[in-house]
Amino acid sequence: MRSDAFLMALTLSLSSGCIVVSDDNDPAPRPVNVAPTVNWADAGCYYDSYYNDFIWWFETEVIDNNGAQDVVAVYADVYDARGTFVETFQLFPEGPTPQIWFSDWLQYSTTMDCYYSGYQIDIVAYDSLDAYDAVTIRPTTF
């Protein structure tokens, strides 16, 4: 009998659940990720006599309410007039103003032509959690 009582007590204890208490009274709000905002963007090309070549440049201002350091990458994705992808250029933070992103490229290092006016450029900014914003612009060409 003693063995039966022990087995019954063991069975009851194994089948009983536990109670979990959730403390929803945490006074500190949880951080919320906010996507970056491309405030403005510009692009174009110009002739540089020192390099004897055209230079393509891309510039944008990216605002992020989680802080400028939350923006981790900015790209200029170039398409032609038919919407065919041409090339991607990475932009970099501009020195003491981390909201400004910039890059420039010698034309010979690209597949682009400063005399072609049909380009469309998507400036895309990503934050540390892959939230993003994008604007589409047309560059200044000859």
Concise account of the structure shown:
With about 140 residues, the chain is mostly beta strands.
Question: What does this protein structure show overall?
Answer:
This protein is mainly β. Strand 4 (85-94) and strand 5 (97-106) form a beta hairpin. The protein has one helix spanning 2-15; strands spanning 37-48, 53-63, 71-79, 85-94, 97-106, 120-127, 132-137. The protein has a domain at 43-137: Sandwich (Immunoglobulin-like), CATH 2.60.40. The chain has a 7-stranded antiparallel beta sheet with strand order 1-2-5-4-3-6-7, with no helix packed on it. It is built from 1 helix and 7 strands.
CATH superfamily of one domain: Immunoglobulins
Content of β-strand: over 45%
Distance N to C terminus: 100 Å
The CATH topology of one domain corresponds to Immunoglobulin-like
Q: What is the spatial order of strands in the main beta sheet?
A: 1-2-5-4-3-6-7
Please mark out the parts with pLDDT under 50 across 5 or more consecutive residues, or reply none. none
State the helicity in percent bands: under 10%
Shape by Cα distribution:
elongated
What Rg is obtained from the alpha carbons, in whole angstroms?
A: 28 Å
CATH class of one domain: Mainly Beta
Largest sheet: 7 strands, antiparallel
Mean pLDDT: 89
Structural class: mainly beta
Give the name of the CATH architecture of one domain: Sandwich
By DSSP, the count of extended strands is 7
Order of helices and strands: HEEEEEEE
Number of helices: 1
Blueprint (SSEs and pairs):
Layout: H1 2-15, E1 37-48, E2 53-63, E3 71-79, E4 85-94, E5 97-106, E6 120-127, E7 132-137
Antiparallel strand pairs: 1-2, 2-5, 3-4, 3-6, 4-5, 6-7
